[in-house]
Amino acid sequence: MLDVFTAAASAHPALIAVGIFGILLLCGFGLPLPEDIILAFTGYVVYRGVLPLWLSVLIGMAGVLVGDSTLWWLGHRYGARVMEARLISRFLPPARLRRIQRLYGKYGSRMLFMARFTPVMRAGVFLFGGWARVSYLRFILTDGSAALISVPTIIIVTYLLGAQIDRAVHAIRGVEHWILIGIAAAVLAHIIHGYVVRRRERRQVDQAVHRATPVQSHDPSDVD
Q1: How does pLDDT run across 161-186, given as a tens digit for each residue?
Q2: Is residue 38 part of a domain?
Q3: What angle do CA 36, 42, 46 make, to 5 degrees?
Q4: Among 12, 77, 132, 201, whose CB has the most other CB atoms within 10 angstroms?
Q5: Residue 150's CB: how many other CB atoms inside 10 A?
Q6: 3-state SS, one letter per residue, for the chain
Q7: Residue 141: pLDDT above 90?
Q8: 112 in any annotated domain
Q9: How much is the pTM?
């Protein structure tokens, strides 16, 4: 991998910058090339002095967010027509689509945030987000906050490790692994907390109803 990175880093800086942006954009559309590798290369060209760190982070963020925003727009603009297609409606009947919309309405921000760290699900979650009418402001703030964690981290880790590309990629995957574990733990804690709160509220309602219900007393005069 180091030989490939070294050869690519010998190109003109402007061509490298355009290439990083373009490939990241295509990765958002499902190009079978790990986004992490392109960001790692971005950090490597910073290490080689080809591009400054601030510009590399800016290009990485722009490529990632423009690609993600395009997926959201496609889902928002054409999602309804696609869902009405016979082949799609066979796998996603109206009842299931309504459940998906409710999920995005309730957990949309969490789903979008987690999708940034899961390449396999990312494109589909962003497309469905546009179809489910998640507002673009909500989408870009959520996706952007996740990208502010992942993009600079990958670039800076590779820049600091320099020519130790394999070690850098291994470190990046380790960081993402722990980020995902942290997100999953936070989601699980939220679910458990919600369950405890709902159970406590039901108990309080039951107690209030029980106190409000009059006690039937036995009146001897009622006996024939």
Answers
A1: 876 766 666 665 555 566 666 666 66
A2: yes
A3: 145
A4: 132
A5: 21
A6: CHHHHHHHCCCCHHHHHHHHHHHHHHHHCCCCCCHHHHHHHHHHHHHCCCCCHHHHHHHHHHHHHHHHHHHHHHHHHHHHHHHHCHHHHHHCCHHHHHHHHHHHHHHHHHHHHHHCCCHHHHHHHHHHHHHCCCCHHHHHHHHHHHHHHHHHHHHHHHHHHCCCHHHHHHHHHHHHHHHHHHHHHHHHHHHHHHHHHHHHHHHHHHHHHHHHCCCCCCCHHHCC
A7: yes
A8: yes
A9: 0.71
Distance, CA of 29 to CA of 75 (rounded, Å): 12
In a domain, 222, yes or no: no
| Six-digit token string for 160 | 């600091």
- The C-alpha R_g of the chain, in whole angstroms, comes to 26
Q: Is 13 exposed, middle or buried (0-12, 13-18, 19+ CB in 10 A)?
A: middle
Neighbours of 191 (CB within 10 A): 11
Which residue reads 């510009």 in tokens? Answer: 55
Amino acid occupying residue 52: P
**What tokens were used for 154?**
């990958």
